């Protein structure tokens, strides 16, 4: 623990001097920290270890969820049923969604938060290290339970990641109980993670690190953490109601007992819409760190970035109805939700304009993180614009539940959230390992991903507009050509991630050239003032921020 | 949380040291309160939604309790057509038909219609009728002083019955609505009702 | 990274995307873009969609022009020195206000279209549309016509044993028929889970919620055959419940309705005639196999083994081997709280008799039981 190591050092040294911090690191290793082997990882309370665990877990889940996407794309390669049965296909789409949302994107952001927030605000660790350990270690069990349900009689959840009642209640298989249990655990894990982030940011900032000096990644995560606190309990309540409706005879969502299936959708999307911002706000933070570094220029409009993030978070609570335009909502509510949803594009637009303005008259260079960041800005904007189209209620009657929607949310979540995570990993990996990663592999990874992801998701707009519904295992003949291309793009994107895996493994073996503490020549911030690799303990004496 | 005073406190405590572990209990408790609050709020959405629907009629459900007829003027100038649709949910074997499939009414005027039900099976069944009105706003202005949907409807094997429904349309009904549809879906709730009575007996 | 290759890759990508998009607009081919459809509303929706599309393209072009210009000109490798500005109140206010104005410009026509969709005038024809796993049921409220509409594509085509025909997965045994030039009102509801009745050519997509009714309407301006699908995930065969609507001239429509009413009457007479007849085991088995394949096999599987944990097996099950009245009852009444629906409306009594006989004598269920239409009648109406 932090306090024990503190006693070994006198308080006089300056944390800003690198050699002192480095000696901390060596001392700790030799004297009283870090047991070796599995127990090091099981018992660790170190924010960097836990961050690493989160990131590896997210990556493994990304590959597992990706493998399910490969099954889906293989089945959809051509019309007809050839590889899997419809019931299994539905399980694949459901579990793919759940794993990517709760197993890949959210834990990856939590991992980045664990690693970087203490370094960025000059804190020695997260505020609640033991809870931090718990919040990670319950996560693998949640996903083991979810995955094991696939092997139960009757199969796993097959009702879509949105689990609309009554398909998930009266008409689901018994493994729904496992699904509910595993979502509860995921929720508890997320809430604990969010508590830790909030408490750390509130209480552990270095002297002089006022709120309006915090890096944007920290700001966006603070707001994300509040969103998590606000909506994960709502998800927990929703799955609880599904559980009692299915097994204990309540009728929250059953018309026969006075319930209403549409109520489920209100509750679910009250959680679900803030949830999608949970998956994109930290991405905004990451891009706001990277673009200034490689433009060698301060972020344009820092304050407006913070306010825009806050505005997006607040708006996320009043737009849930746009997922439900076809449920038979009265016209005045449709118009309200349409306007509210369109409003979201104002602060989001401000962000994009700010990034472009940051690049404007900068001194731009194109290192790997910057390439991912630029791809993010372009492709996320495409996803954002199709989102704007989806907000238009009459047009949404045509888009809703088609591949147009699938294209939209994969543009914002894959080329948005996931590209930002990759950008972040490339940006901070040299800081974590002390070595520059294999740039050739990284370039291969970037270009293969960029091209294939567009072959994968862009034609989905067309098949969606032409009338292909989502979540179907087989389709009419006029969609065949595009689906072939989509599948080819899917396989290529899947394979491209193996390059990433190889690169990460190489980096973890500490191969490559050593890097300076600043790593990138335009990088600014506390995390670049500590040595590379980042010592096991950092900022035990708080740095002074001016 | 963003005021400067608080900032100063935080800064001081950070200064004083990471040496003495900070006490985060207060902050954590506040957040936990928020978590518990949101969990309860989600459950509170259930009754809130019912209230909201009652006020706005967004889901087309009619009142589950009998309305009291307040003598109002009958608006002879307007004629509203009410369609009746009867459905039985799957697994519900009863015959269920509306004796009047369509009726023209004046707002404010009392009307009585009847529905025929028959249980053709050889077991006793308890039914619950669930009403739904389209367009949903019309549900707000449909006042039922008597309806079979207010109670469970038990029928013995082979029994048949006429179930009455007495209603009037509120003269406040928006001008643009000239017709609406009232659907009743019959559900077999024998099992759940039986279970309840068993529960009561056990208590 | 060499910058020139970065730019060239990016522009190749952009050109590919734009050419797809351009093709979508120019050719108007239905497998690239939304269809304008065949009603006034659907045309409005199409125009709205295209307006939104062009506005989004314009926004994208403006933003990316600035970005790419900056990427080309303000490069470190070209010796660009970073400027020192990091805020500008005027610019920031402008780019908050301008999008706001664009939004209003887009939202106003959308709101008007939406209000046009809320037409509450009296319809000429009302159809009650009921979704259930995995078929649609249509009931004409003003006529004595109602029927189920199920997928007509053969299993062989789905299983890749037969060549797929043109309307693969978009064909049904009995399409919905409506007159042109009349206001048609659809009342939409469901028997089990949530479905969604989607007809792209009418720009109608409305959820079918169990226990509740939703409304939609259209006025089709040209005769033809229009195809759509269920749009809300509704279980295993969600992808296999298409919607086909045939729009006919009013005179032809009236003739069709009269014909349907006659057919319904004949079917009732036939049903009465069959009640007094006994069919042979062979007849029952061959008809039963057909009915089973069309109606039951989706869940209980062609081999009667079901899907363990989801749909129970019939092969070797107590229900199909012992209790005949129980077996009939579950088909006629369904089983509340499960996926097993009532088939009393969808199948005739002789069809139920055949399928019960089939299930009791197929796949090694060799009970030798023969069930006749009058046995079904006895259970359904409690009379011999």
From TrEMBL, chain A:
UniProt topology in membrane: Multi-pass membrane protein
Residues covered by the Cytochrome oxidase subunit I profile domain: 41-546
Coiled coil feature spans: none
A Pfam short name: COX1
Enzyme class, UniProt record, top EC level: translocase
Alphabetical UniProt keywords: Cell membrane, Copper, Electron transport, Heme, Iron, Membrane, Metal-binding, Respiratory chain, Translocase, Transmembrane, Transmembrane helix, Transport
Assigned EC number: 7.1.1.9
Matches recorded under CDD domains: Cyt_c_Oxidase_I
Reaction(s) the record says it catalyses: 4 Fe(II)-[cytochrome c] + O2 + 8 H(+)(in) = 4 Fe(III)-[cytochrome c] + 2 H2O + 4 H(+)(out)
UniProt GO MF annotations: cytochrome-c oxidase activity; heme binding; metal ion binding
BP GO terms, sorted: electron transport coupled proton transport; oxidative phosphorylation; respiratory electron transport chain
The organism's place on the tree of life at top rank: Bacteria
Principal localisation: membrane
Family membership noted in the UniProt record: Belongs to the heme-copper respiratory oxidase family.
Entry protein name: Cytochrome c oxidase subunit 1
Automatic annotation (TrEMBL), chain B:
Keyword Transmembrane: yes
Any Gene Ontology CC annotation: plasma membrane
Molecular function terms from GO: copper ion binding
One protein family per Pfam: CtaG_Cox11
Membrane topology annotation: Single-pass type II membrane protein
Subcellular location: Cell inner membrane
Chief localization: membrane
Keywords: Copper, Membrane, Signal-anchor, Transmembrane, Transmembrane helix
UniProt cross-references to InterPro entries, sorted A to Z: CtaG/Cox11_dom_sf (IPR023471), Cyt_c_oxidase_assmbl_CtaG (IPR007533)
Keyword Transmembrane helix: yes
TM spans (from-to): 31-52
Biological function: Exerts its effect at some terminal stage of cytochrome c oxidase synthesis, probably by being involved in the insertion of the copper B into subunit I.
Similarity remark: Belongs to the COX11/CtaG family.
Name of the protein in question: Cytochrome c oxidase assembly protein CtaG
Taxonomic source organism: Glaciecola punicea ACAM 611
Gene: ctaG
UniProtKB/TrEMBL annotation, chain C:
Domain (Cytochrome oxidase subunit II transmembrane region profile) ranges: 26-121
Domain Cytochrome oxidase subunit II copper A binding: 122-259
Subcellular location: Cell membrane; Membrane
Keyword list, A-Z: Copper, Electron transport, Heme, Iron, Membrane, Metal-binding, Respiratory chain, Signal, Translocase, Transmembrane, Transmembrane helix, Transport
Signal peptide: 1-24
Cofactor(s) needed by this chain: Cu cation
Location, primary (coarse class): membrane
GO cellular component: plasma membrane
Enzyme Commission number(s) of this protein: 7.1.1.9
Transmembrane feature ranges: 48-72, 93-115
Enzyme class per UniProt: translocase
Coiled coil: none
Record-linked Gene3D superfamilies: 1.10.287.90, Cupredoxins - blue copper proteins, Cytochrome c-like domain
Gene Ontology terms describing biological process: ATP synthesis coupled electron transport
Reaction equations catalysed: 4 Fe(II)-[cytochrome c] + O2 + 8 H(+)(in) = 4 Fe(III)-[cytochrome c] + 2 H2O + 4 H(+)(out)
Function: Subunits I and II form the functional core of the enzyme complex. Electrons originating in cytochrome c are transferred via heme a and Cu(A) to the binuclear center formed by heme a3 and Cu(B).
Family to which the UniProt record says this protein belongs: Belongs to the cytochrome c oxidase subunit 2 family.
Protein name, per record: Cytochrome c oxidase subunit 2
Species this chain originates from: Glaciecola punicea ACAM 611
Source species taxonomy: Bacteria, Pseudomonadati, Pseudomonadota, Gammaproteobacteria, Alteromonadales
Gene name for this UniProt entry: ctaC
């Amino acid at each position: 623990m932090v306090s024990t190591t503190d006693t070994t050092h006198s308080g006089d040294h300056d944390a800003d001097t690198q050699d002192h911090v480095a000696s901390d690191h060596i001392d700790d290793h030799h004297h009283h920290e870090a047991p070796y082997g599995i127990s090091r990882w099981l018992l660790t309370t170190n924010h960097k270890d836990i961050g690493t665990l989160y990131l590896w877990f997210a990556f493994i889940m990304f590959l597992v969820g990706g493998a399910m996407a490969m099954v889906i794309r293989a089945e959809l390669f051509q019309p007809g049923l050839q590889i899997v049965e419809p019931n299994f296909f539905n399980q694949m789409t459901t579990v793919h969604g759940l794993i990517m949302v709760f197993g890949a994107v959210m834990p990856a952001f939590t991992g980045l938060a664990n690693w970087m927030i203490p370094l960025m605000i000059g804190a020695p660790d997260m505020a609640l290290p033991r809870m931090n350990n718990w919040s990670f270690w319950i996560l693998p069990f949640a996903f083991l339970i979810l995955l094991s349900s696939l092997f139960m009689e009757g199969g796993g959840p097959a009702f879509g990641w949105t689990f609309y009642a009554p398909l998930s209640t009266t008409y689901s298989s018994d493994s729904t109980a496992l699904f509910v249990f595993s979502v509860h655990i995921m929720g508890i894990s997320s809430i604990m993670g969010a508590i830790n982030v909030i408490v750390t940011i509130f209480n552990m900032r270095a002297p002089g690190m006022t709120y309006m000096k915090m890096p944007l990644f920290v700001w966006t995560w603070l707001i994300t953490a509040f969103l998590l606190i606000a909506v994960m309990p709502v998800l927990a309540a929703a799955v609880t109601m599904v559980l009692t409706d299915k097994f204990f005879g309540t009728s929250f969502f059953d018309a026969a007992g006075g319930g209403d299936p549409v109520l489920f959708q209100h509750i679910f999307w009250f959680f679900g819409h803030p949830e999608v911002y949970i998956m994109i706000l930290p991405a905004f933070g990451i891009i706001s760190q990277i673009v200034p570094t490689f433009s060698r220029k301060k972020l344009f409009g820092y304050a407006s970035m913070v306010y825009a993030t806050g505005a997006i978070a607040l708006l996320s609570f009043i737009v849930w109805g746009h997922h439900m335009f076809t449920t038979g909502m009265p016209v005045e509510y449709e118009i309200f939700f349409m306007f509210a949803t369109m409003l979201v594009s104002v602060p989001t637009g401000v962000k994009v304009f700010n990034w472009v303005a940051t690049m404007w008259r900068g001194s731009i260079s194109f290192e790997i993180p910057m390439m991912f960041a630029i791809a993010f800005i372009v492709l996320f904007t495409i996803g954002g614009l199709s989102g704007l189209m989806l907000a238009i209620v009459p047009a949404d009657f045509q888009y809703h539940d088609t591949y147009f929607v699938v294209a939209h949310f994969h543009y914002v979540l894959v080329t948005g959230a996931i590209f930002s995570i990759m950008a972040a990993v490339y940006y901070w990996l040299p800081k974590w390992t002390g070595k520059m990663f294999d740039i050739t592999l990284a370039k291969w990874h970037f270009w293969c991903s960029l091209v294939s992801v567009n072959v994968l998701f862009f034609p989905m707009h067309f098949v969606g507009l032409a009338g292909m519904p989502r979540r179907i295992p087989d389709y009419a003949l006029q969609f065949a050509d595009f689906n072939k291309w989509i599948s080819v793009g899917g396989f290529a994107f899947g394979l491209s991630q193996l390059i990433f895996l190889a690169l990460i493994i190489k980096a973890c073996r500490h191969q490559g050239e050593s890097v300076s503490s600043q790593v990138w020549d335009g990088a600014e911030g506390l995390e670049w003032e500590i040595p590379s690799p980042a010592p096991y303990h950092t900022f035990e004496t708080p740095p002074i921020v001016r | 949380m963003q005021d400067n005073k608080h900032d100063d406190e935080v800064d001081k405590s950070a200064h004083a040291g990471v040496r003495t572990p900070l006490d985060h209990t207060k902050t954590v408790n506040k957040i936990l309160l928020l978590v518990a609050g949101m969990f309860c709020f989600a459950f509170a959405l259930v009754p809130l939604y019912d209230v909201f629907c009652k006020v706005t009629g967004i889901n087309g459900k009619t009142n589950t309790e009998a309305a009291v007829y307040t003598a109002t003027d009958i608006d002879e100038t307007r004629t509203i057509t009410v369609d009746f649709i009867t459905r039985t949910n799957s697994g519900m074997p009863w015959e269920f038909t509306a004796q009047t499939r369509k009726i023209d009414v004046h707002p404010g005027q009392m009307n009585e219609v009847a529905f025929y039900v028959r249980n053709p099976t050889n077991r006793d069944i308890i039914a619950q009728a669930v009403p739904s009105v389209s367009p949903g706003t019309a549900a707000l202005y449909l006042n039922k002083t008597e309806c079979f949907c207010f109670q469970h409807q038990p029928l013995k094997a082979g029994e048949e019955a006429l179930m009455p429904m007495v209603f009037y349309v509120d003269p406040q009904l928006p001008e643009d609505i000239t017709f609406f549809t009232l659907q009743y879906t019959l559900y077999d709730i024998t099992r759940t009702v039986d279970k309840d009575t068993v529960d009561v007996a056990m208590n | 990274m060499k910058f020139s290759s970065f730019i060239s890759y990016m522009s190749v990508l952009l050109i590919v995307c734009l050419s797809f998009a351009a093709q979508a607009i120019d050719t108007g081919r239905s497998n690239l873009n939304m269809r304008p459809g065949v009603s006034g509303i659907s045309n409005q929706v199409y125009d709205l969609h295209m307006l939104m599309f062009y506005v989004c393209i314009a926004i994208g072009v403006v933003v990316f022009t600035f970005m790419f210009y900056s990427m080309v000109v303000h490069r470190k490798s070209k010796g660009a020195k970073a400027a020192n500005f990091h805020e500008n109140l005027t610019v920031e206010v402008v780019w908050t206000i301008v999008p706001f104005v664009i939004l209003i410009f887009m939202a106003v026509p959308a709101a008007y279209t939406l209000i046009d969709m809320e037409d509450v005038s009296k319809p000429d024809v009302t159809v009650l549309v009921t979704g259930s796993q995995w078929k649609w049921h249509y009931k004409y409220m003003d006529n004595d016509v109602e029927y189920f509409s199920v997928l007509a594509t053969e299993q062989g085509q789905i299983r890749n044993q037969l060549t797929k025909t043109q309307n693969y997965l978009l064909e049904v045994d009995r399409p919905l028929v409506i007159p042109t030039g009349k206001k048609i009102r659809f009342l939409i509801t469901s028997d089990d889970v949530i479905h969604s009745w989607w007809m792209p050519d009418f720009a109608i997509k409305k959820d079918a919620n169990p226990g509740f009714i939703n409304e939609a309407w259209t006025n089709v301006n040209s005769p033809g055959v229009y195809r759509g699908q269920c749009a809300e995930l509704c279980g295993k065969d969600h992808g296999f419940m298409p919607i086909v609507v045939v729009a006919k001239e009013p005179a032809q429509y009236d003739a069709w309705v009269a014909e349907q009413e006659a057919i319904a009457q004949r079917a009732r007479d036939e049903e009465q005639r069959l009640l007094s007849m006994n069919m042979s085991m062979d007849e029952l088995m061959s008809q039963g196999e057909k009915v089973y394949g069309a109606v039951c096999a989706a869940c209980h599987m062609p081999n009667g083994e079901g899907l363990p944990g989801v749909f129970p097996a019939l092969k070797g099950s107590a229900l199909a081997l012992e209790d005949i009245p129980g077996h009939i009852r579950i088909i006629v009444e369904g089983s509340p709280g499960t996926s097993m629906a009532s088939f009393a409306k969808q199948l005739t009594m002789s069809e139920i008799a055949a399928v019960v006989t089939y299930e009791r004598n197929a796949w090694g269920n060799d009970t030798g039981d023969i069930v006749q239409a009058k046995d079904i009648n006895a259970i359904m109406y409690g009379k011999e």
